[in-house]
């Protein structure tokens, strides 16, 4: 469980680093063709989802997963994983919708259906892949020693 928490923390920090690097490079260079991406998301009705996406994808995982104890506790990891999933959906949503739907900023049935379809596809692929091979190796000489290991 601790390793999963470390991976969640590392991937969240990598996403934040790439997001901030892209933001600073585009904003500082101030090239009109490039800045329109952020202008359309920061100075329009998409400002709240944009800021929320950053908070969900960086601030929450950073504050919660910085501690070793929370990375070992499934009661903390599951809500953070759900938030990261919602934050990733919001990130993909904000990549596509403001540039294609312009003034359509109402979160309605289309967006809910899109989210549920994305979630269903993710669950389907995950469970299909996990069912192809046993999760615990059989007849491995170090299996019992691995089970007895306490971090």
- Helicity level, as a percent range? over 70%
| Inertia-based shape | elongated
Mean pLDDT: 85
What is the SS-derived class? mainly alpha
N/C terminus separation: 10 Å
Quantity of strands, as a count: 0
Strand content: under 5%
Unreliably modeled segments: none
- Please compute the radius of gyration using only Cα atoms: 20 Å
How many DSSP H or I helices? 7
Major sheet? none
What is the string of helix and strand elements? HHHHHHH
Structure description:
This protein is mainly alpha-helical. The protein has a domain of 103 residues. The chain contains 7 helices and no strands. The radius of gyration is 20 Å and the shape is elongated. The chain starts with a helix and ends with a helix. The mean pLDDT is 85.
């Amino acid at each position: 469980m601790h390793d999963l928490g470390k991976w969640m923390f590392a991937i969240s920090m990598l996403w934040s680093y790439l997001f901030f690097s892209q933001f600073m490079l585009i904003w500082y260079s101030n090239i009109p063709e490039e800045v329109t991406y952020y202008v359309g998301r920061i100075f329009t009705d998409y400002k709240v989802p944009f800021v929320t996406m950053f908070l969900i994808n960086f601030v929450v995982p950073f504050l919660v997963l910085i501690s070793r104890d929370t990375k070992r506790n499934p009661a903390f990891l599951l809500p953070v994983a759900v938030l990261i999933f919602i934050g990733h959906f919001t990130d993909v949503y904000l990549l596509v919708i403001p540039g294609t739907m312009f003034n359509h900023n109402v979160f309605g049935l289309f967006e809910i259906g899109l989210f549920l379809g994305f979630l269903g596809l993710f669950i389907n692929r995950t469970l299909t892949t996990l069912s192809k091979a046993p999760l615990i190796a059989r007849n491995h000489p170090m299996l019992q020693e691995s089970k007895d290991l306490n971090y």
